Amino acid sequence: MWFRNLQIYRITSGNITPNSLEETLSQHTLQPCTQMEMQSRGWLPPRDEQPNFVLAFGQHWLIALGIEKKLLPAAVISQHAKARIVNFEQVQGYRVSKKQVRDIKEATILELLPRAFAQRHKTYAWIDAVNNRLILDTVSASKAEEFIEVLLKTVPEIKLVPLDTKVSPSTAMTRWLSGDDLSSAFTVDRDCELQGMSDEKETIKYTCHTLDAEETGRHIRAGKKAIKLAMTWDSKISFVLQDNLQLRRIAPQDILKESTESDEDRFVSDFTIMTGELSQLITEVIEALGGEDRD
Asked: Which helix (H) or strand (E) holds 239?
């Protein structure tokens, strides 16, 4: 497996092992929503084929948070609530108040919940015990916050902070697009996004376009900054660096894709290669941004 998007956190404290983490997560597993629950959260085995809640390969561990949510669209709630409001007004002979509308909607939700379908979603995290990092595979800030919230409740001895660098990604990307030297480990690809710093946040996007320093520099001199930049690391992994330090659209190049192994062997091989390569990529991105800021 390969993570496609990286949100990175620094593990600042917490003496955990795969065995202790396995024991803890197994005590807080995902349970199906009850009839009257909108959502349930808990830990799941990262692989359906295996019972383990922690898949450990050396100093790299994979875990997964499961979220089960009832599917109750607002349009369905509104449709049933309106019918109840019409019936109420016909029987009582007067229009309902705002408070009564809220009460009717709440009652409608309680009535529909037992019949709602439930949908499950997994969010994966990789713990890099060598570099004390936790990496989430998601672009969603809300999913990341939810994962961290549940993890800290489950394993309270762990302390986390978002990864930060001495030079902001936006500042560094803007400099590189203006012609400043970039580490030889990286090449700039053909996608980027520039945004103005006024309230209107006027935006220019380049897609599959050769990024010329003179052309992009003209926009930068006009007051725009880079907020996204497509790059390739060591001719092996392409990605998009975001101004919030997320790495998105992770794509291993052909040199890392070739495999004739069985599904299980391929999973182990892919995870081992992924963690080895991405941990080095993260380290070199941090170095290109002036090093990690731990103040």
From this structure: strand 237-242
1 domain residue, yes or no: no
In contact, 69 and 118? CB cutoff 8 Å: yes
pLDDT of residue 82: 87
pLDDT 10s digits, 62-83: 999 999 988 877 887 888 888 8
pLDDT of residue 257: 60
CA 115 to chain CA centroid, nearest Å: 31
Q: Give the mean pLDDT of 124-129.
A: 97
pTM of the model: 0.84
Q: What are the backbone dihedrals phi and psi of residue 4, each rounded to the nearest 5 degrees, phi first?
A: -100, -20
- Are both 23 and 86 inside the same structural domain? no
Q: Between the CA of residue 107 and those of 81, 90, 101, 128, what are the distances in Å? A: 9, 18, 10, 47
94 and 121 in a single domain? The answer is no
Identify whether 250 is part of a domain: yes
Range of the domain at 83: 74-114
| Nearest-angstrom CA–CA distance, 217 and 219 | 5
Bridge partners, residue 67, by sequence: 41, 121
pLDDT at 256: 62
Domain identity same for 57 and 91: no
Torsion of CA 249, 169, 197, 180, to 10 degrees: -110
At 187 the three-state DSSP class reads strand
Per-residue three-class SS string for 208-236: CCCCCHHHHHHHHHCCEEEEEEEEEECCC
Count of Cβ atoms closer than 10 Å to residue 224 Cβ: 22
Same domain as 129, residue 105? no
